[in-house]
Structures are given as structure tokens and as C-alpha cells.
Write a structure and sequence with these properties.
By secondary structure, this protein is mainly alpha-helical. 64% of the residues lie in helices and 6% in strands.
Length: 108
Amino acid sequence: LTCPDPESIVGKKRAHEFICLYLSLFQTIARETDIDKDIIEQTRTAFTEGGIKVATEVMPLEVVDLLAAAGTPAECQKRIDEYRASGVDLPILIALGDSIDLAINSLR
């Protein structure tokens, strides 16, 4: 998952919404993360009762740095490089929203 944007917070907030959605809807994915199980349950409840905006108020924004390459193109590239350094030979990136052109043109 990647979401580069010239403004770091814009990319991170887009990724945050996507992550909250996935962790709310897909319990098997959520179970495999290192995120506190209570936070995941609170996020799932917030999503069910109030939608994605409410869920993002529960799930800390810091999860983005654990589960995605989001932020400025340089931040995204750094995260991709960290994946490679940990042994990932071929990172598969899914670009969110309108970030695909920036991802294609700035990430390697």
C-alpha cells in the first residue's frame, strides 16, 4: 500500500482511512498486525457505528508507518527501501486514489 503526496500528512491520512477500513472489515488481516487488539476492536466498533471518519479518530495515525509506504515521495521511498532491506525482493505497491502517477514517477 502506498500513497505519496507532496504534503506528508495528506498521503498519510489517505492511507490511514484505507487501513482503518481494512482492519475494520477483515479480521484475518487485522489479526496479523502488531496493533493492539483492543484498538482494533474499538476501531471496528467505531467504523460499524459511525463510519470511516469515526474509525480514524480511534485508530492512531502512527499505524500508517507500520503498515504502508505513505507520506512524501521521499518518505514512501524510505519505507520501500526498509522493506527491501528486511528481505522483501519485490514489493508490490497499490497506490491509493489519485497518487498513482506520483507513485509511478517517483518510487522505485
